[in-house]
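Example 3.
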Amino acid sequence: MSNARVESEDVQTIEQTTTGETDERVREAWLDYEFTGETKLSTTDLDVYYGDDHALKGVSIDIPAESVTALIGPSGCGKSTFLRCLNRMNDRIAAASVDGSVELDGEEVYQDGINLVELRKRVGMVFQAPNPFPKSVRDNISYGPRKHGDIETGLLARLFGRDDREKEQELVERSLKNAALWDEVNDRLDDNALGLSGGQQQRLCIARCLATDPEVILMDEPASALDPIATAKIEDLIDDLAEEYTVVIVTHNMQQAARISDQTAVFLTGGQLVEYGDTDQIFENPRSQRVEDYITGKFG
Amino acid sequence: MTRDEYQQSLAALRTDVLAMGDLVADRLDRALAALSTVDESAARAVADADDAVDQRYLDLESECIQLLARQQPVASDLRFVASSFKIVTDLERVGDLAVNLAQYTLAADRKRFEEVDLSSIGDLARDMLDDAMTAYRTDDAALCRAIAERDDELDALCQRASERVVRDLIEHEVDEGDSWAVEELMDDVSRLLLVVRDLERVGDHAVNIAARTLYMAESDPSLV
């Protein structure tokens, strides 16, 4: 059991909430919020700046392992910025600076000398638009493990007595099965991945992520470009993945967050994390009036 | 549907549920009056008019389903629609009970058991229903809890009335050789006990409405 902590030094506004509580009291309630399972990711006083723009303000939150945590909120509220902090993708943005702490299994992600390739292998990411490589389905899956040296199938390797083609086949099959795509593409593993439908491409990207054996999967609106059938398959897949992986998903679709997540964190404008709790509680009886107004469409 | 239209739909649902509450309360008033004054034509009018209540119930059920399907309400909106969906069922049942009361009026021998005070029971049940709909209109959680407490009072009145009927039945002298008289007496007794039971059920439905309203207002399921 872990306590989830959500604080924001910059947010001191006293505001009536749905239960007559103040935002401060809502935050105090999070101090007592307990979830089942161990903490996988933990942030403390996390601030992100893009130049002078204070994009994320003092977010402290614990994310439980082997569950789905949804991040919701209006555009520009900082939820994608927060997601990208979790595997240091913000490092790729020159103007971005990060203060505070992010821990993965208790180990500081922002410590000097951390191996970013290894970090992003442990904390994989799936983006909004499907972005398969213009290669075969098989090569898309095995690309990461090859880069990491986990699979060698080249001529040189074979000359030195190493041939991982059987291992690669097993990896491809396992990854595609885990991404619920195997049945649809097993007879065209050597076809170009760009020939797949949008929904299949997105599941291929998830399979590609799974191939590197991650512990956490970050998803930034993974179904926003997909039709309802493809979306349903992605949502079913996320539900299955949560049995083994820690999934953190950003979505603009609140019904999707309500359907698939165990915990929901609500970010509102100004980079504030306003409420965090069980998804059932957030969507049935949010403590914060601002969250109530946002999710019922009266604000934002 | 825009967000404004959505908000208007929610407001319309509340108005329509309250209108159904008024309709059912009117039916109950007429049934109780018919019972009290032995007005057969009024009783027949109540019995014949149940279709209007049923139709209102079906319309409101459809209204709730449309809102759920098209708007996927959450938080207080969800609690409101879900509670309204349940409350209209209770109102429809109260409408049925009003019809039952009217039919008992048409069939009963009013000369027997005049000492059983049905009007006090009916007034209390009617007041509880009225208060339940007031609580629904105003999101009054305190009133919801008060209604639940008053149900004990109604139950006690009904219990006393039933015991009185049974005691009178035991004391009643009927010529055992007159099988027709015995049968008539038994019919009257069972009808009267059914009247008491149905009035008690009106109170139970009022408590149900209060329970759903409390959940709607404060997300408190303690009375459900």
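The longest helix of chain A spans residues 165-178. Chain A touches chain B at residues 18-19, 254-255, 258, 283-286, 291-292, 295-298 (CB under 8 Å).
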